[in-house]
Amino acid sequence: MLILTRDSALGMLNSVTIAPITSTIRSIPTEVVLTEADGLPSTCAASFDNLQTVPKSHIGDRIARLTARKMKEAAAAVSFALGFDGD
After folding, report:
1. Among 46, 70, 76, 87, whose CB has the most other CB atoms within 10 angstroms?
2. Contacts of 4-9 spanning 24+ positions with Cβ under 8 A
């Protein structure tokens, strides 16, 4: 799972917002492909059509931190998924 909650809020919250990560890649505007270069064990996609809020207790150890470029892609995918794509 890709944690979307901002770092500065993590210590104050019991739950976090996440985008699930799946091995199914659909090449759609609401997903971001992640690869070994991003620190993931294999190529996968974060799905922003399925945002969830989960208890922090369901979060394991961090395995990667996305680059600023990938975070911009994630922001664009969230905006598109929520209908804030400029239309």
Report:
1. 46
2. 4/51, 4/74, 4/78
In sequence order, what are the residues at sequence separation of 6 or more whose Cβ sits closer than 8 angstroms to the Cβ of residue 10? 3, 16, 56
Distances (CA, A) of 32 to 18, 23, 44, 47, 58: 13, 12, 8, 7, 22
% residues pLDDT > 90 (the chain): 80
Categorize the per-residue pLDDT at 65 as very low, low, confident or very high, splitting at 50, 70 and 90: confident
Mean pLDDT of the chain: 92
Q: Are 76 and 28 in contact (CB under 8 A)?
A: no
Q: Are residues 36 and 42 in contact, defined by beta-carbon separation less than 8 angstroms?
A: yes
CA 23 – CA 3 distance, rounded (Å): 17
- Other CB atoms within 10 A of residue 12 CB: 6
